[in-house]
Design goal:
With about 425 residues, this protein is an all-alpha fold. About 75% of the residues lie in helices and about 0% in strands. The protein has helices at about 1-20, 20-50, 55-65, 65-85, 85-95, 105-120, 125-145, 165-175, 180-185, 200-230, 235-270, 275-285, 290-310, 315-330, 330-350, 355-380, 390-400, and strands spanning about 160-165, 190-195. α2 (about 20-50) runs antiparallel to α10 (about 200-230), α6 (about 105-120) crosses α8 and α11 runs antiparallel to α12 (about 275-285). It is elongated.
């Protein structure tokens, strides 16, 4: 009697907590987790896209492989050539005296030829590799400067620049507009400023903040989600469902942010024409990580909802648990299936997150905990399932495919209902 009274008291306490401060706090944490999920994805995206050189190198390779971007970069190279070299003057020196007056018209006509030559030049793998290396070197120098690693870094007038000089020289050699272009081109020519020296301190502070947020904000988000579930004693299922829906909404919000920001950048800041297409393609490439983050959140929320449905009290949920009980009764099948699922996702790589070791480890741990909880529920409901053949669910499924809706051959009576 005393034991029953203690259990009854504990159940009453759980119900009271479920409607008291614990539930209110858990609901507040659900909202906080949903917001932090969006911020975690955005912070992680900025950290990798802006501060990770391999990611920058990969993005540079995708950019130069896009025809619209190549066309725009080719125009930039020609602009840099004509801006830093007196093409008309160089041609005038090479023309006979009686034809030197034609130097300016010829220089103008050669500009279109140079544009076409630049586009063709940038299609070559060796030149594309040169572009990628230029971007990667500039990014490495930028990171050294932002992390304040000594004073050995060389910049142009204190600025961090993207050096296009090697590409301009390659273009000049191909078109042969100007002889000995490498000697004529100033050392600091064809450089695009990335960060100005007067903005360095602000950029350094932003870098440190993004580094910390990108590394640890997602851990805080998971921790608060765990606290919300722990607090909701007696209502944990509903809170877990709310968290799953919140994560899905966070993923959709990330995708919406990407789309709205892209429309603003492309539609409001860029005029129509070739440049517009190049900016659109650049935005698509450079925000692919953000898109993947949004879809990853959506997938995680959907998987959680599937697990919640499986543990529900509905007729389909109860029948599913009964049907799959022989499989859940065996540890090797449950955790082997979970491990196989993780390996398949890593092999497939539907989003870039499944190529990040820390994310894969966290996902595997969460999936393992989820499978442990599901197995615990199923085994508690059907303790006899361990004595049934592991292939029984597949036999029932095959029978259903052959036209037996109850999942059993017509010659075999259905198994006992087991109280369900």
């Amino acid at each position: 009697m005393s034991t029953a009274g203690t259990v009854s008291s504990e159940a009453a306490a759980d119900r009271a907590d479920a409607h008291g401060w614990r539930l209110v706090t858990a609901k507040v944490l659900v909202v906080v987790v949903s917001v932090l999920a969006v911020l975690s994805v955005v912070a992680g995206y900025v950290r990798y896209q802006a501060l990770d050189t391999p990611t920058v190198r990969s993005a540079a390779g995708e950019l130069i492989a896009d025809p619209a971007v190549r066309t725009e970069l080719a125009a930039t190279l020609v602009d840099q050539l004509y801006a830093n070299v007196d093409v008309a003057g160089a041609l005038q020196q090479r023309l006979p005296p009686d034809q030197q007056a034609l130097a300016a018209p010829i220089a103008g006509a050669l500009r279109e030829l140079a544009n076409r030559a630049a586009v063709t030049l940038l299609e070559r793998p060796r030149i594309q590799a040169l572009w990628v290396n230029s971007v990667a070197v500039s990014h490495q120098e930028l990171l050294k400067l932002l992390n304040d690693r000594g004073t050995a870094l060389r910049t142009a007038n204190g600025n961090v620049v993207l050096n296009l000089r090697p590409l301009v020289i390659q273009l000049g050699d191909r078109v042969a507009i100007v002889g000995r272009l490498a000697d004529r081109l100033p050392p600091n020519a064809a450089q695009i400023t990335i960060v100005k020296s007067d903005n360095l301190r602000m950029a350094q502070r932003a870098t440190h903040a993004l580094e910390v947020a990108g590394r640890f904000l997602w851990i805080l988000t998971l921790a608060l989600a765990a606290v919300a579930v722990w607090l909701a004693r007696g209502r944990r299922r509903s809170i877990l469902k709310a968290l799953a829906i919140g994560v899905i909404l966070a993923g959709l919000a990330v995708l919406m942010i990407r789309r709205v920001a892209g429309n603003y950048v492309v539609d409001s800041l860029v005029p129509t024409g070739t440049t517009r297409e190049a900016v659109q393609q650049s935005w698509t490439i450079l925000t692919a990580l953000l898109r993947d983050g949004g879809w990853t959140l959506t997938m995680l929320g959907a998987l959680t909802l599937i697990g919640i449905w499986f543990t529900g009290e509905g007729r389909s949920s109860t029948a599913s648990r009964r049907e799959l009980a022989p499989l859940f009764a065996r540890n090797e099948i449950v955790y082997g299936a979970a491990a196989t699922f993780v390996l398949l996702l890593v092999w497939w790589g539907p989003t870039v997150q499944f190529h990040r070791v820390q994310f894969v480890v966290a996902f595997a741990i969460l999936l393992g905990l989820g499978m442990w909880a599901l197995r615990r529920i199923v085994v508690a409901e059907h303790p006899e399932a361990g004595n049934e053949p592991a292939g029984l669910p597949f036999t029932h499924a095959w029978s259903a495919l052959r036209g037996h809706p109850d999942g059993h051959p017509s010659t075999t009576p259905p198994p006992p209902a087991d109280g369900l």
